[in-house]
Specification:
With about 375 residues, this protein is α/β, with parallel strands linked by helices. It has one domain: Aldolase class I (TIM Barrel, Alpha-Beta Barrel). Helix content is about 30%, strand content about 15%. The strands form 4 sheets. The protein has an 8-stranded parallel barrel, surrounded by 5 helices. The longest helix is centred in the middle third of the chain and has 21 residues.
């Protein structure tokens, strides 16, 4: 490779200088196995090891107790959690890296076990008919409670407070999780949102909560340090179903995001084959690159070659990698050298402890073994 790979070129993200265009995608790893649901020294090691990414987006972190829906996921709503995250941001910054935190509310994907028996909150009382991973293993999701206006307003404030906490914890920015079948995504799709008030019934109303959250969050952190994650063509996964209204609603919301000077829009290509699904968009980057005027991160099944190509073709600015970063902590270096990539162990994705978390070797260690 004579010319520099697109993925390895530096990128200016508003006022942040990124060393490359390789983003570590947010991934739930379920290592916060303590009563506080706070990050630990183990989290700091894990993220430090991966700090050569141009940008790290942390695992989803619940904005409130009501936002939790999986065991051992860290939050960003208590003092102990802020202190835990400080160790992580310090570790990443010591290595010259940049890190955003993903702000998360799972909505109806939760289970009463997480809420003292109370129902999870959602736009409408519609069961996603999925599984929730609780302390007693997988359990069927339930019909959630339709949120009152007051509960919606409180959730907006919870995102705002979480952003304030993120600043205190030393993060470079925040990513609002409006994707993958979680609370905000549940508002966007008419298959999960059947409200008849100002939060349902039209693209404007279904997208309202996200815009209110951005307006609230930017009171705590500059607009250009706020990212948004969306997955327009998600179908048949995480309890989500798309219909002919789904893509037009996402088109409307993404158009509206141009009114802000955001850090980026982070989109996922479809997680499943949607070529035969009426109303679906199989090529997300190609569709939204002309619509969205700011920095676009694309994610979903990219390898090195596809990552370089999508930037070359002008359909994205940065590419987010998930599982490859789990098993290759020094992924940018491996891409640079064209080195062999290590395989991940999916059995340890969500298990407590260092195994399958911080014990993947970097290239030098791999070479020394041979």
């Amino acid at each position: 490779m004579d010319k520099q790979q697109e993925l390895l070129k530096q990128y200016t993200l508003n006022d942040l200088k990124l060393n490359n265009r390789i983003v570590m995608a947010p991934m739930t790893r379920s290592r916060a196995d303590n009563p506080e649901k706070a990050p630990t020294d183990l989290h700091a090691t894990y993220y430090r090891q991966r700090a050569s990414a141009g940008l790290i987006i942390s695992e989803g972190s619940q904005i409130s107790k009501r936002g939790v829906g999986y065991i051992n996921t860290p939050g960003i709503h208590s003092k102990a959690q802020v202190e835990g995250w400080k160790k992580v941001t310090e570790a990443v910054h010591e290595e010259g890296g940049k890190i955003f935190i993903q702000l998360w509310h799972v909505g109806r994907m939760s289970h009463p076990d997480f809420h003292g028996g109370e129902l999870p909150l959602a736009p409408s009382a519609l069961n996603p008919n999925e599984k929730s991973y609780t302390s007693e293993g997988f359990k069927d999701t339930v019909t959630p409670k339709e949120m009152s206006i007051e509960e919606i307003k409180q959730t907006v404030q919870d995102f705002k407070q979480a952003a304030k906490n993120a600043v205190e914890a030393g993060f470079d920015g925040v990513e609002i999780h409006a994707s993958n079948g979680y609370l905000l995504h549940q508002f966007f799709n008419s298959t999960s949102n059947q409200r008849t008030d100002e939060y349902g019934g039209s693209p404007e109303n279904r997208g309202r909560i996200l815009l209110e959250i951005i307006d609230a969050v930017k009171e705590e952190i500059p607009e250009n340090r706020i990212g948004v994650r969306m997955n327009p063509s998600l179908h048949g996964i995480f309890g989500m179903t798309l219909n002919e209204e789904t893509i037009p609603t996402h088109d409307y919301i993404i158009n509206r995001l141009n009114n802000y000077q955001l850090a980026y829009l982070h989109l996922s290509e479809p997680f499943s084959d949607v070529s035969d699904i009426p109303g679906a968009e199989p090529n997300i980057a190609k569709r939204y690159r002309p619509i969205y005027k700011g920095t676009l991160i694309i994610n979903g099944g990219f390898d090195q070659e596809k990552g370089n190509r999508v930037i070359e073709e002008g359909n994205a600015d940065l590419v987010a990698y998930g599982k490859l970063f789990i098993s290759n902590p020094d992924l940018p270096k491996r891409f640079e050298l064209g080195a062999e990539l290590s395989d991940w162990d999916s059995d340890t994705f969500y298990t407590p402890g260092a195994k399958g978390y911080t014990d993947y070797p970097v290239l030098e260690e791999v070479e020394n073994e041979h």
